[in-house]
Design a protein that fits this description.
Number of domains: 1
Structural class: mainly alpha
Radius of gyration: 15 Å
Number of strands: 2
Strand order of the largest sheet: 1-2
Shape: globular
Helix content: 40-55%
Largest sheet: 2 strands, parallel
Strand content: 5-15%
Number of helices: 6
Order of helices and strands: HEHHEHHH
Oligomer: single chain
Length: 98
């Protein structure tokens, strides 16, 4: 199941997709499609960002009202575990470059 479907958000309402973490550093945008995380129309809206979460978290403490924004954001986040998805595990492993 795609993350977009799981979130209940319509692809047309998403202007930009930033992928970070292990997915953002190890996979290509095409791989995200192969593992069914993103539909074809969203691929051109997608950027892979190494250390994106860390960069974002570093910006919050210095921004005006940043700590309150960070608290609100963290309270609204929902996990989407992928570890039990066979297609994701197979394609993720195939996309890793050793």
């Amino acid at each position: 199941m795609r993350l977009l479907e799981r979130s209940g958000v319509n692809a047309e309402n998403v202007p930009l997709v930033l992928v970070t973490g292990a997915l953002g550093t190890a996979l290509s945008v095409a791989s995200l499609k192969r593992v069914a995380l993103l539909p074809e129309p969203m691929l051109d809206k997608t950027s892979l960002v190494a250390n994106g979460v860390l960069a974002g978290l570093q910006a919050y403490p210095t921004a005006t009202g940043g700590r309150q924004q960070l608290a609100g954001l963290s309270a609204s986040l929902l996990p989407f575990p992928l570890s039990g998805t066979p297609a994701c595990a197979r394609h993720f492993g195939a996309a890793l470059e050793f």
